[in-house]
Design goal:
With 195 residues, this protein is of the alpha+beta class. It has helices at 54-61, 81-89, 141-148, 179-188, and strands at 3-8, 35-36, 45-51, 69-76, 92-93, 96-97, 102-105, 127-134, 153-161, 164-165, 174-176.
Length: 195
């Protein structure tokens, strides 16, 4: 089984074609029979897994196989303890309450490449970075959660899916996972061990 970890750049679709001419995965990856395992919004960045295995793809996208996804999120203003606790407890969105999340305020800005399109900057509005770990993947969930607690998302980077991280990659780069990494990912997704 082949699995790729890819650092999806900002403003790239998680598809291989687009009728509107936007940038797609095809600009970066030309390997037959590889499919994106899950979504990452057009305006979000970071880790995307691609696999040729349908069962692995399904488990990475189906809610019943809850697995951790780690995000670094730049938000407007610095969230107070109440806002952080709301994110931890679950936030009421228009499609129901979110699962509890792990959240921490980062004490330093993460070391990340500059985004090709800068975030909107307002001189009198400070920003802060959060690390947010979710076990579900609703549409635009992180952005909706931070907005619901009064801190709109300015930049969003997925840095890990289970044990797989962005370490060693730059935007637009990809790498095959080792067999050990694939086995660890399968364990996270509750695959039965092969005899």
């Amino acid at each position: 089984m082949r699995v790729i970890r890819f650092w999806k750049p900002f403003n790239v679709l998680t598809h291989f074609t687009d009728k509107d001419g936007r940038r797609t995965l095809a600009e970066f990856i030309n390997i037959p029979e590889m499919y994106a395992a899950g979504r990452l919004d057009y305006d979000s960045e970071g880790l995307l897994l691609l696999a040729e295995n349908g069962e692995l793809n399904a488990r990475l996208t189906q809610p019943r196989y809850a697995h951790p996804r780690t995000y670094w999120v730049q938000v407007e203003r610095t969230p107070d303890d109440n806002a952080l606790q709301q994110l931890r407890d679950g936030v009421v969105l228009n499609d129901g309450i979110t699962r509890p999340a792990q959240v921490k305020l980062l004490t330093e800005d993460p070391d990340l490449p500059e985004r090709p399109v800068p975030i909107r900057y307002r001189k009198n509005v400070p920003t802060a970075w959060l690390e947010l770990i979710l076990t579900e993947g609703r549409n635009r969930q992180v952005r909706r959660m931070t907005a619901a607690v009064g801190h709109p998302t300015l930049r969003l980077i997925r840095v890990a899916i289970g044990n797989i991280t962005l370490a060693g990659l730059q935007p637009g780069e990809w790498q095959y996972l080792t067999q050990d990494d694939i086995q660890a990912l399968k364990a996270t997704l509750k695959f039965k061990k092969q005899p």
